[in-house]
Amino acid sequence: MIRRTLHALATRRAKQFPVVVITGPRQSGKTTLCRMAFPARPYVSLEAPDVRAFAAEDPRGFLAQFPRGAVLDEVQRAPQLLSYIQGIVDERGRNGLFVLTGSQHLGLLEAVSQSLAGRCAMLHLLPLGLDELKRFPSAPRDLFTVMFAGGYPRIHDRRLSPGDWLASYTATYVERDVRQVLRVGDLLAFQAFLRACAARAGQLLNLSGLAADCGITHHTARAWLSVLETGFIAFRVPPLHRNLGKRLVKTPKLHFYDSGLLCYLLGIRSPEQLRHHPLRGAIFESWTVAEILKARLHRGLPPDLYFYRDHKGVEVDAVIETGPRPIAVEIKSGQTVTSEFFGPVDFLAGLMSAAAPAAGIERVVIFGGDATQTRSGVRVVAWSDVDRFDWAPEHARSVRKTRRRASRSAARARAPAGRRAGGRPRSVAEGPRSHASSPRGTARRRP
C-alpha cells in the first residue's frame, strides 16, 4: 500500500495534541494509514461485537489495557469512551496518547465536541487524490479511466473491477449506514434519491425539485442529503458572497467525493461509455472540485471553496479563498483550449479588481487536454497536472516559514558562544572594547 499525503500531518499532530481524530468515508484507508503512521501502538477495532460490548460495559477496564495509548478504530460505535479518554489525557498530560478513527462524521463530531474539545486534532482522509493515485505502479493514465475507477484505495491496491467493487460498496456500506442513521423504511426510495443526486452533480441544488422527482417530502430530502454528507458521499459547495455589485445566487452546488461512485450511480459501466456520456462535463467538474478539496483537507487546511454565479448566468466553477489573492477556476472537459474558456475568470477578475484594486486574483482553467500552458496571464492546467498545481499556497508559506525558523535555530546552535551572545568573538589579548575606540562610542561623546 502507498504512503498517503495525510501521513506526515497525522504524525505531526500526534506530537502537538493528546488525541488525533481521523474521519472519512468507509474504505478510504483510515486503518491502513493509522497502522503505517503509528506502527508501535496497539490497534483495536470497535466494529467487533465482543470488543464493543467490553468497551460499553467496562470502559475504565477497557482503556486500562492501553497505558501508553492506542489506535481505536470506528470509535463512533462506542461514544461513551470519549468521556473516559478525556479524563485520561487530562491526568497524564502527554501528547499523542490516542488516535481515533470514524466514518460517520456527524455522530463522531458531536461526541468529540462534547468530550475532547481543545484536546484533539481533527483530520479528514478522503479517497485517493490524483497525486496519490500516481504512486501505484498500475495507475490508470487516461482521464476517463481515472474518473471511472475513482479513488477508493482497495480498487487500485488489489486491481479490482471498479464496477463490481462499487456495487458491493453501495449495497454493504452506503445503504447500511443509512439504515443505522435514519432507519429508512423504503430503501428503494432512497436508492432512487441517491441516483437523482448523482444526476445533479455539478449543478445548483434544488431540494424541492429533487424531492418532487423522488416522490418524497422536502424535509425527507434534506434529511437524506445530510446522511450523504455525514457519510462522505456527497458535499455542497456554497456560493461566493462578496460585495461585487452583482446579484448573486444563494443556492449551493452539489458534488460527489468520488467520481467512480458517481459514475456507478449514473449507470456508467466503462470508461468508453463515460467518454460519450452527456454528463461527462459535470462528472469532470465534480472530479476536479473534489481534487481541490482533497489537496486542501489532506494538508490540514479548511476547504475555503466556493463558486461564483450571478443572476445573468455568468459562472466560475470554483473560487478558493486563500487570503489576499483568491484563485478563480474554470473547468472544461474539452481537450482543445478555446477563447471562451477564459471569459468567466476574466469577468470575475474584473469585478474583484474593481472592488479591491490592490488584491488581485489568480486565474486558472482546468481542461481535459494534455498540455499545461499560460495564455494572457491565465494558467491553463491539463487534467493530469491538477495535482501539481498549488491549491494550498498558505500551506506552502507555512512550511517555508517553519523551515526558515528551524534553519535559524540550527545556525544559532552551531555558532560559537560569542556569536550567540550577539557580538564577534574576541581573544583575551584584545581585552574589553572601550566606548572611545568604537564609532558608536565616539558618536555619543558630549562636547
Report on the architecture of this protein.
- The chain has two domains: 6-124, P-loop containing nucleotide triphosphate hydrolases (Rossmann fold, 3-Layer(aba) Sandwich); 130-394, no CATH class.
- Mean pLDDT is 87; it is low at 425-447.
- It has a six-stranded mixed sheet with strand order 8-9-10-11-13-12, with helices on both faces.
- The termini are far apart.
- The chain has 20 helices and 13 strands.
- With 447 residues, the protein is α/β, with parallel strands linked by helices.
- It has helices at residues 6-14, 30-37, 49-57, 59-64, 81-92, 105-115, 130-133, 143-149, 153-157, 162-182, 187-199, 207-214, 218-230, 259-265, 271-275, 280-297, 343-355, 393-414, 417-420, 439-444, and strands at residues 19-23, 43-45, 70-73, 98-102, 120-124, 234-237, 253-256, 305-309, 315-320, 327-332, 362-367, 373-375, 378-382.
- Helix 17 links the parallel strand 10 and strand 11.
- The relative contact order is 0.08.
